[in-house]
Amino acid sequence: MLVRPGAVRKTLPVRPLLASTPSRHSTRCSAANPLPSFSESRRILTTGSDARPWKRKSYRALVGFERNLATALEEHRFGDDVPFEGLPATLASQYQPQNSQLPLHMLRPFNVNSTLVLTEPKPYPPKQRLNPMGIPGDFEEMLSVFEACVQVGRLDRASLVLKRFEKMKTLESHRAVELHNRYLQGRVAQLIAEPSKEKAEEVHKWFELHIRAARLPFTPITLAYMLKTTLLTSEGPTQAARIDRYMSMMPHQNASEPLDLGNVLSDEDLETIAEVCPSYYIPEDASGAAEAEALRDDESSDLEDPEHHDATRKILSGTPEVLGTPQKGMGLKSLKTALSLLSELPDGLDIASLPISQRREVQARLERDCVDAAIARWRDENEQLMGMGLNTQLSTPSLNSKLYDWHQALEARLVQEQAKVEASLSAPKKSREDMERCVYGPHLLQSPANRLAAVTILSALSSLAMHGADKGIPVSNMVQQLAKIAEEDIRAQSVAKTLPKSKPRKQQSARQLMRLHDAAPTATADTAPPPPAPAPMSTPAAKPLPNEEPSEFAARWPIAIKAKFGAVILGALMDTAKIVVEREHPETKEKVTQTQPAFTHAVQLKKGRRIGVIQPNRSLIELMKREPRGEALARHLPMVVEPEPWSKFDKGGFITSASPLVRLKNHEKDQRIYAEAAIERGDMEQMMRGLDVLGKTAWKINRPVFDVMLEAWNTGEEFANLPALDPKIPIPPEPDSTDDPMKRRLWLRAVKIAENEKSGLHSVRCFMNFQLEIARAFRDQTFYFPHNIDFRGRAYPIPTYLNHMGADNMRGLLLFAKGKALGESGLAWLKVHLSNVYGFDKASLKEREEFANRNLDNIFDSADNPLTGKRWWLQAEDPWQCLATCYELKAALSSPDPTAYVSHLPVHQDGTCNGLQHYAALGGDTWGAQQVNLLPGERPADVYSAVAELVQKQVTEDLANGNEFAQAIDGKITRKVVKQTVMTNVYGVTFVGAKKQVQKQLDSLYPDIEKETGMTSSVLASYIAAKVFMALSTMFRGAHDIQNWLGEIGGRVCRAVTPEQLDRIAEASGEKVEESRATKKRAYTSSKTGEEELASHFRNTLVWTTPLRMPVVQPYRKSGTRLISTCLQDLVLTNVDRDDPVNRRKQLQAFPPNFIHSLDASHMMLSALECNAIGLTFAAVHDSFWTHAADVDSMNRVIRDAFIRIHQEDVIGRLKSEFEARYRGSIYRAKIDSSTDVAKKINEWRKKHRLGPKDELLLERRRQVLLRSLDPEEVLQGKEMVTPASIFESLATPDMLANEVDPEEMLSAGVEEEEGDVHDGENADKVEVKGKVTEGLKNFAAHLKELHGTNYFVMEINKPRRTKDRNYTRPAPQVELWLPLTFPAIPKKGDFDVTQLKDSKYFFS
Questions:
Q1: Where in the sequence numbering do the catalytic residues fall?
Q2: Rounded to an integer, what distance in angstroms lies between the CA atom of residue 589 and that of residue 178?
Q3: Can you tell me the distance from the alpha carbon of 620 to that of 597, in angstroms, rounded to the nearest whole number?
Q4: In this predicted model, what pLDDT tens digit does every residue of 1142-1170 receive, in sequence order?
Q5: What range(s) does the DNA-directed RNA polymerase N-terminal domain occupy (predicted)?
Q6: Of 210, 175, 138, nearest to 22 (Cα)?
């Protein structure tokens, strides 16, 4: 991926560093121009005795993974460096690497010229049909099939894919070389296994015909494969001639530059080449360096002898078992088997006490053994039943007993399918079924049948459990889920194959390098290489010869391959999985058994559409309801060693299980491409180091709390937030059949609600069952949570079940593994913390401390008799955290010196509605800042109470005017009613979402409100929600203006066409736009097709850079659908692509909240980095920061300073500057009122010229090109051109432009609501438009009156006619025109000074 000219980093006056294989989506940033890297361990052929490799530096250090680029460059002065000495001081300071002295927790200076801008990719060529050989015609499918064929050794099929690419002429030359290198790698691997002169000749022929004759810019790696082929199969003069010929094709380089030949050639190969070509040789010191590094690698990777583990064999543990829910079936047993490695350790032994090599071995086993453990467990239980003479097919209490039979049958079926695939791939004449298998077949061959069968069973049952086993699951969802899990497992197997299983030979531990003597051989005409390509070439990270990472260009499976693959394995499971059903005969009352399919394919009607679903057998549903869901993948468990530092997008965290640095939904490409480019040039350094800080925080289980929780859990009764084993949910009696039919409908609804509640409680208990099982396994261990981030930069722990972001029960179970003496302040903060978790958190710090002192008796009783005492701790808002604090306080106060007590309890400091804190700082709102504790105060301010008071004030005003809604709600506006809406408003809750939140609180607090007032809670909630929005816009006026501004600039970007897109449109249409007869015949108003075509060019997703230089890319696009035929049914699936036009509504809804999220993520990361720098233990849950009680004061100083550093900068001004640089040269579609003089002039011009929207766009593009020209005559010509934009510029003012956001959309009750957490930013509200929206909210009560006295059914029936019934005035028509993309002025900021925060005790408290 290329960086757009004009927005790149300035070139540094140093030789470009040598970098290892660039990622698939590399960027051409002039600050970091990567070439192949090398290190001391590589074998080198060089040019002279004084030519030595410089001091070894890892690639991570060179390109800025550990530090930024400028820092790394200081440590070596290249021969052609330009010294700074002698330059004027002012000029030298511009080039000196100033950032190198900045610590990680300091913000880097923002340079608008360094904005990371990636050019839009060229659209993929049109999809073609399958050819007669079964090779697909879709670009992505061809790449995926090619990689799969290479992986499974079907190089004959891989060559057919390459030939089709060659014929289509759509593959860029450097990409074609990557694929050819991958193909040659496979051929060489075959020759190593079975040397054959005939096959070697085919390789030489392939190189000549398809690489050299095609004039592809082959690389040294390409020639290395050809040299390896020669060395493996040729002898004597033939070998020497071919070596000489291939070496003569090497790029001409000077004496100091090495040739990077990868890991292809061994030491012996290099020596042979040096003998044949004296121009190249191996320096003596390089060999010693390679051996030394190989020795270091061996020492770090060696593991202790397994006999050392004899002392840690399994012994009986004194800790009770966890009561299953209600029976320990497949899910729990799978988890316990995966955790069996930990159970082998003696009770009380911490893995942290073992040598690091043993700890890493334990971690690696935890990561890789889950699937194998499941197969072994199924086999063992099956054999046990068979040994007892029991038939495993009979109905048994556990599903486990059947899974081995399922696995055996499915494995046999998959073996048959793989054999059919092999036959289809080899068939000279292919049937329709053969053609289908040629598409998905190579992927099916990548996994052994027995493992693929186990993965299919585990993922199928897990999917059913997650989606609700009794409801079934749509075929499309099931197919994609099975394919996704299978793909991840295949990738994990591929990575595992590359891990060294023994000490590697020294030449396998690094790439090989050669250097050329000064006297380079002169290439003859016969052997001259083709002209070099103008663009730099990249070398693929090919699969090992013998050990290296898998290919980086192996993209995710395309949607069609996933669908076909998933349908095949799902169909095989449905055919082979059987279950024995035992029923009572209706007449004879005898028990009758019958074998039935475990899964059936059915069709259901949903919203008038026929949907295929997978319906599990009723007996299977009953079994699954008695068992937790079966998920025990490696990423669900904590680590027993510190996580690997993040160095690449998918390298960090777990040791062997790959996890992405950025969490992506539906494998969005934009965020990954930007993140990889930012990593490559060092922009993600602070974010990655921040994740490392969060990951290296060590944790342990709070044993006293765990023991209490386990005892309470095993009773099966409801306790604190633990649901009961068998919850008693009352169901109303069934009405008589003669009663009103409406009563029966209400009864059915009540029954459904009760069943859903019971099912929900069961799911919660199953989830907690997993959490307790994991906690029990890790009860004596020190463990860690690897973290990654979402696309906004917010950090999350990767382990699913046991982590500090869980509910109260999980937080109460966790302690810091490292303790710290309390000290005077720590003891006080421990007492404040107890008050906070109890719920007494609105008082001053002194009052909170006194609250703990007043309740010392209760605290001691809770710690001494948690289950048999007064149970004071159960009354707390967070009871388990309260109990943990009671234990800590009792232990401290009972010690001889409480201040010397070593505390392990994390103490939390929570922000006051952190999103509003950022908004208040951005807008400079003094009143708002005071309400969210940005200003010093004697007591903590409560923004929720303040908003409730404002709402009540508005209600009182309406009451005086006789408003019936005000009469109904007067006196009922409490803090609790408005809290959730205030909290989520900043995160973009829609009006509909806010109404639902308020309605929920009204129903809870005032269940009889409809009887008392005669109005439904839904109508009253709408009235209150409108008042809440008005109150917030009043309190946070500056923030409100910022929201409006963000919506406006976002709307313009989403309707803009970039220079690259303009060039492509012009190229397709012809550069010159003239008025042809065809054009004149087409009226402007009849260009609907043209408008639709132009809408497809609006592909600019909103991208911005956080204060820590992380690029944020919003993923919301209008993805198309694709009909895919599978063996089960035709599937209509969403096809996500970077070429999709943006979803403008979602982009605008999500922009303000996501922007705020990116700021609070930066604040947290800065705080983590500085806390780590000063030696504090740190953890965070978004806007809740944790550390030891003794360090709370230090952490508070850090988080205040970090917030001030962010907001002392011009955050909004920087965003505007970045947008101007990022979208420079774009043209957007603007709107103006048709009644203005400007609009009338434009319409007159259009009647005369009769150009369509596309032609007008190209005309405006030509005008802009002329105006930017350096030729004065062309500039004059541009000024004389007349376009709608030039008319607007000459007659209009910027305020004539229509707002990009429709204010009515915010009040619409029909806004589409999506499921999910509103904090994800996807349910973000439309940004209000100042003035219009406020007026709309004030008049909102009038719109509610017509709803009074109606029910839901009437509302639904009348919904389409509602606008006609109101006094609705259609807005004036608007005229659209193309304008150069500019952005409005930033709203005036208020007078709040963020430095006043330094003295605020309650900013976080």
A1: 910, 979, 1183
A2: 70
A3: 10
A4: 888 888 888 988 999 999 999 999 999 99
A5: 361-696
A6: 175
Q: For residues 64 and 682, give the distance between their C-alpha atoms in angstroms, rounded to a whole number.
A: 5
- Distance separating alpha carbons of residues 1151 and 1047, to the nearest angstrom: 7
Report which secondary-structure segment, H or E, holds 903: strand 902-903
Beta bridge partners of 594: 581
In angstroms, the CA 908 to CA 884 distance is 13
The number of residues making up the chain comes to 1405
Residue 463's pLDDT is what? 75
SS3 480: helix
Q: State yes or no: pLDDT of 42 exceeds 50.
A: no
Which residues, other chains included, contact 1110 with Cβ-Cβ below 8 Å and sequence gap of 6+?
675, 678, 683, 684, 687, 789, 793, 1158, 1162
What local confidence, expressed as pLDDT, does residue 527 receive? 40
Question: Which tokens go with 793?
Answer: 């930069």
Question: Cα angle at 727 between 726 and 730, to 5 degrees?
Answer: 130
Long-range pairs of 1294-1298 with CB within 8 A, sequence gap ≥ 24: 1294/1382, 1294/1384, 1296/1232, 1296/1233, 1296/1236, 1296/1238, 1297/1230, 1297/1231, 1297/1232, 1298/1230, 1298/1231, 1298/1232, 1298/1233, 1298/1374
Is the CB of residue 444 less than 8 Å from the CB of residue 565? yes
Indicate whether 314 pLDDT > 60: no
One-character DSSP codes across 956-983 = HHHHHTT-HHHHHHTT---HHHHHHHHH
Tens-digit pLDDT profile for residues 652-710: 998 877 788 999 876 678 888 899 999 998 999 999 999 999 999 999 999 999 999 99
Q: Are 374 and 399 in contact (CB under 8 A)?
A: no
Q: Is the pTM of this model over 0.90?
A: no
For residue 371, give the amino acid letter: V
Residue type, 66: E
pLDDT at 703: 94
Banded model confidence at residue 757, pLDDT cuts 50, 70, 90: confident
CA distance 1059 to 4: 10
> What value does the mean pLDDT of the chain take?
76
| Alpha carbon separation from 606 to 612, 1140, 1357 (Å, rounded) | 10, 27, 20
Give the up-direction half-sphere exposure of residue 301: CA atoms within 13 A in the CB hemisphere: 14
User: Exposure pattern of 407-439 as b/e (b: 16+ CB <10 Å)?
Assistant: bbbbbebbeebbeebeebbeeeebeeebbbbbb
Among 157-166, 542-551, 637-646, 677-686, the minimum mean pLDDT is found in 542-551
Burial class (CB in 10 A: 0-12, 13-18, 19+), 179: buried
- Pull the structure tokens for residue 1186: 């944790």
Tracing tokens 């000029």 back to the chain, one arrives at 91
- Average pLDDT (819-832) is 93
**Cα(373)–Cα(367) distance, integer angstroms:** 11
pLDDT of 225 reads: 93
Q: Contact 1250/1080 with Cβ under 8 angstroms?
A: yes
Crossing angle for the helix pair 975-985 and 1017-1035, to the nearest 10 degrees: 60
Residue type, 1258: L
Contact status, residue 919 vs residue 1042, Cβ threshold 8 Å? yes
Distance of CA 901 to the CA centre of its chain: 41
pLDDT at 913 over 80: yes
Contact 487, 147 (CB under 8 A): no
921's CB contacts (< 8 A; 6+ apart) are 929, 934, 1203, 1207, 1392, 1394
Cα Rg for the chain, rounded, in angstroms? 34
Q: How many CB atoms lie within 10 A of CB 947?
A: 26
Residue 812 CA to residue 807 CA, distance in Å, equals 9
Judge whether 1336 and 1307 are in contact, CB under 8 Å. Answer: yes
What is the biggest distance separating any 2 CA atoms in the chain, rounded to whole angstroms? 107
Distance in angstroms (rounded) separating the CA atoms of residues 49 and 286: 11
Which two structure tokens, joined as six digits, stand for 363?
A: 């971690």
The single-letter code of the amino acid at 558 is P
Distance, in Å, from the CA atom of 119 to the CA atom of 27, rounded to the nearest integer, reads 9
DSSP 3: B
Interatomic CA distance for residues 712 and 695, integer angstroms: 31
